[in-house]
Amino acid sequence: MTGLAVATRPATTSTPRLTVDLGAVARNTRALADRASGELMAVVKADGFGHGAADVARTALAHGATRLGVTSLAEAFALRDAGFVVPILSWLNPVDADFPAAAVRDVEVAVPSLAHLAAVAAAPGKLRIHLHVDAGMARDGAEPTEWTALCRAARRAEQRSDVAVVGVMGHLGCADDPADACNARGRTRFAWAVEVARAAGLRPRERHLAATAATLTDPRTHHTMSRVGAGLVGIDPSGTTALEPAMTLTAPLVQVRRVRAGTPVGYGHAHRTSRATHLGLLPLGYADGLPRVASERAEVLVRGVRRPVVGRISMDQVVVDLGAEGAQAGEIATVFGPGPDGAPTAAEWAAWAGTIEHEVVTGIGARVPRVVRAAAHLRALASEGRR
Ligand SMILES: *Cc1c(COP(=O)(O)O)cnc(C)c1O
Hints:
The protein has helices at 22-35, 45-49, 53-62, 73-81, 99-104, 114-122, 144-159, 182-199, 212-217, 346-353, 357-362, 376-386; strands at 6-7, 17-21, 39-43, 67-70, 88-90, 108-111, 127-132, 163-169, 206-210, 225-228, 247-252, 255-259, 264-265, 271-272, 277-282, 299-302, 305-310, 318-323, 332-336, 370-373. It is of the alpha/beta class. It folds into two domains: 3-18 and 246-373, Lyase, Ornithine Decarboxylase, Chain A, domain 1 (Beta Barrel); 36-232, TIM Barrel.
């Protein structure tokens, strides 16, 4: 299996390594596609949540997704450069973004304001747009007070053939807690927004509100399409569904030393050993995405045993208490992984750092070499191609 692994930067056993399991992405996509009543848009913003945008996109499209979504136009253009021909939507752009290039490269854009509409309509070509309503987060999307005017102006622009309104989109602020009343208000506002668009004469084929959590918990949010990102890589913000984490972070012990009780460890001597023990050094630190705030709480797996991170997490390195047993320099520690082998998960690291898994997996630094394990289906395609 590893024979077909694609190393984007060479990883040897003497370096840290981030392994991305596209088989997990494939199975997660399937599970999400089975739940969604409409189409599935694979959201691969932020380099596919740190897993590699093109790899996640290719895998998701082969297992049930039909479209791609990103925030910036630059991300969308990179996907076009990588050869993706499916519809791509970009939803977070300043008014002076390169909308002419979006038209040339056939990238759909979300329009959250009259100013954006004017900029998009002024671009040569006829951009396909999704009107974006704020469903109650006071974040991106048009204010309800501006929505009717936006729909009417979009209809006029459509009649002039300056744009084609192909979608209406919203986003829920509390979908990770399905019981929160904010969800009902978001659904109601979205239904109202679609009605206003219709009353203005628009016929948006795509109506999309749900991200991963709502896709997994509330069919009333599904409409014609779900936009899922976190779920593809094994994160369920609602905590209701077992998905498979797709990322494993490992590192070799670069040094192991025997120390006496009372030995101070690391910057500020923030830790002192309580007994004679072995200390192991891993070449990963906060510059590689290990949250410094997880110092003295985090654990890693060495020889099948959880071992505590001791002292402060440094920029480039951490110290692990290996106990009386110790280990040899060169042995591999698992920092986090999918979990069945007993290694910590990204979710545990998130808890140690007081954050969410998304921040852990998107935070792994570019210095860490990556290995991508292909999904079985894609491996079969690759070997057919070689014959
Ligand atoms: C990131 C994002 C998504 C994907 O959300 P997940 O919870 O990761 O599935 C969907 N829609 C918008 C507008 C987003 O910004």
